[in-house]
Amino acid sequence: MEHFRLCPVATYYQRILLPLSYSLVFILGLSLNGVQLWCVWCQTRRWSGTDIYLTNLSLADLLYVLSLPPLIISNAMGGVWPFGNIICKSVRFFFFVNLHCSMLFLTCVSIHRFLGVCFPITAVRLRTKKLALFASGAVWILATLETLPTLFFAHTGVIHNRTVCFEMTNPRQFELYFPYGLFLDVVGFLIPFLIVVTCYCSMMKVIYCRAADGISNPRTARRRNKSLYSLVVVCLVFVVCFVPYHIARTVYLFVRVYLPVDCGLMNTVIISYKVWKPVVSFNCCANPLLYFWGSGRSPMKLWAWLCGRKRVEPRVEDVGGANRSGG
CA angle 94-320-192, nearest 5°? Predict the structure, then answer.
């Protein structure tokens, strides 16, 4: 607790920025992922590996946004936690497990698309429903095991006579938490990030080379250009949503452990970390939008469909990649 007394943490932004951001993510993420789950689950007759990954990714995103309401209320109250220790641990655990599930399923989708574009013959053997089911189960188990220590580290505490829910752990345990925090950054983010970027860069290279070497008609050229554009957009969304947050989180861990008495630096890194947290949450909203865009749904068709005025069959397989491509 000593570091908190030495370095009062600025919380002026919490009552406005975080509740508004999380509320927007909650509303959009709940509706868009619910719609996408309905699309894939109810309107798909023959399931493919892509459909399985899409369903699991939407489910992870949906569970992620369902963990936000207690955080919205707590941030609106200036960081006060009124829900008790068990809900504190549960919210932190589900927040991180579904965030990591989302990243891992995006990784699965990127590998799935990579095989189809770069190794089409090999893909016939590897892009099967059985393997997709196995990989999906492995993702849920791995993400759960990765974030299980959160149930130990996260808990409620009292700071300046206010009950709070520590996101990582209390100040006295930060040196113990530090190796685990770095483990989450490397295994839960850095490795999946490198895989996703490598897969999409490879796909862009293959598509571009095919377009440059082959003779194609205007229609084929347009389709290839759209594929390249889709890959670039999805890759950028993944980078913007995940990279700044994890950099800010890693810097915060180092400052908290090695420079805890530098109050100016401490406040800077904490504010930076908190500001980027809602950005990583917006990935849950971007995934369904990229799905509808990649499947050929125009905004007007999507709006009409959401309002119940029109039902259009989704072309799920087309977007197994454009959306879930990585982002």
Answer: 50
Domain membership of residue 272 (yes or no) is no
Is residue 113 a part of any domain in this protein?
A: yes
The reply to whether 299 falls in a domain is: yes
Full DSSP string of 107-175: HHHHHHHHHHHH-HHHHHHHS-HHHHHHHHHHHHHHHHHHHTTHHHH--EEEETTEEEE-SS--GGGHH
79: three-class secondary structure by DSSP: coil
- The structure's pTM equals 0.83
Q: What is the pLDDT of residues 100-156, one digit of tens each?
A: 998 899 899 889 889 988 888 888 888 888 999 999 999 999 999 999 999 999 999
Rounded distance between C-alpha atoms, residue 189 and residue 203, angstroms: 21
CA angle 248, 250, 256 (to 5 degrees): 100
Comparing C-alpha atoms, which of 225, 188, 186, 197 is closest to residue 325?
A: 197
Domain count, the chain: 1
- Locus of tokens 């190794």: 119
Residue 95 lies inside a defined structural domain of this protein? yes
Q: What is the pLDDT of residues 37-48, one digit of tens each?
A: 887 777 667 788
Q: Where in the sequence is the domain holding 153, given as residue range(s)?
A: 15-236+280-322
